[in-house]
C-alpha cells in the first residue's frame, strides 16, 4: 500500500491553494489519474495500490464517479488562478488502470476535457497489464481519445516474472501490442532488471523479445528494494538474494546497446524512444518542472510551486469527496534550496542535461573532475551543459551528489 505520506501543512476543505500562488500560463499543465486497484500485489511494489481484500468498503465500480468529483473541485480551485490551461498530457497510472472498464476510463477523460480542455495532439497514456488488453478494449480506449498504451511487460522469462509476483502470461504481451497497433495506439513497454534469480542471459532474452515487438518506447528500470515490501522481507530473511549492483550494471549496458542498435535513443536514464516525438511527454513534464494535478488516492500534485498530496486509502478518499471536501492530506512550498536541489537531480537525468550555471556551490568546480572520470560529456560541458555519459548514467546519484555539494 505504498510508503507513508510526507508531512506538511493542512489543506483547506475547499482545496484552495495558498494566497499569493501564481500560475504561469506558459508552464505546461499535465493531468495524472491514479487507479489504485490490482488483482495481486507484486512483491517489489511500493506504489499506493490495493487488492480487492484491502478496499474496506471502497468500490471499483464507483471509482470513476468519485474521481470526477475531485476533477470538479480542481476546476474550481484553478479558475481563480488566472487564464485556464488545457492539459498537454493525461496519464492513467496505477495500480492497473485497465482493471476498470474502458468506458470508465473514457468518462474520466471526458471529465478532464470538460473541466480543463485537452490540447490538440495531446499525449494520453494508459498503463496496462498485458492480460487485460483485448482488441475490443484497445479500440474503445482509442475511440475515447487515448493515444498511447504503456504495457507492463517486465520480463519475457516465466521464472523472473514469478520472482516479481507478476501473474500475467508473457505470451499476452505480444497479444496486447498487436491489439494496440490495430487500434492505432503508440506502444511503450516497461521492463525491470535485477530480479532474484535473473541471469544476464534471462535479461538478454527479455530485451530481445521487447525489440522484436517493435514498440515506440521502452522503459527499463533497475529493481529497487523498497522498505516494507514483501521482497524486502524475503531478502532480510535470506530467502532470496539482494540485487547485484555489478550484474545490474551489465544489464543496463546490454539494454542500452540493444536498443541503440534497434534505432532507439536514450532521453532519460531509464527511458529510450525511437524519435523525439515518441518520448513520454508526460514524464518529461515531471523532470522539467512543469505543473500537474494528480487525481486519486495518494496522488501528488504540483501547481504554481505548491506541492500537495491526497489521502492514501480509496475509502478515505471517497469519504472526503462525498462530504464535498478536498481529499488533499497536506501541502508544502519547497524553499529555494530544496527546489534547486530537485531541479539539479531531475534535469541531470535527461538527455538535454543541466546548465552548468545551475550546479550548486562547489558543484561547478566538480565538473572538471566529473569529465575526467568519464561521468559527464566534455563537449557538452564546453557548451555550458552537464550531460551524462553512459558511465555517468550508471552512477547518476554520485554525479548529483558531486554537483550539489
Automatic annotation (TrEMBL):
The record's subcellular locations are: Cytoplasm
Ion transport in keyword set: no
- Reading the lineage from the top rank, the first entry is Bacteria
The alphabetical list of record keywords is:
4Fe-4S, Chaperone, Cytoplasm, Heme, Iron, Iron-sulfur, Metal-binding, S-adenosyl-L-methionine
Which residues are in the Radical SAM core domain?
23-262
Q: Could you tell me what this protein does?
A: Probably acts as a heme chaperone, transferring heme to an unknown acceptor. Binds one molecule of heme per monomer, possibly covalently. Binds 1 [4Fe-4S] cluster. The cluster is coordinated with 3 cysteines and an exchangeable S-adenosyl-L-methionine.
* Family to which this protein belongs: Belongs to the anaerobic coproporphyrinogen-III oxidase family. HemW subfamily.
Please report the name of this protein according to its UniProt entry: Heme chaperone HemW
Question: Which organism is this protein's natural source?
Answer: Microbacterium insulae
* Higher taxonomy: Bacteria, Bacillati, Actinomycetota, Actinomycetes, Micrococcales
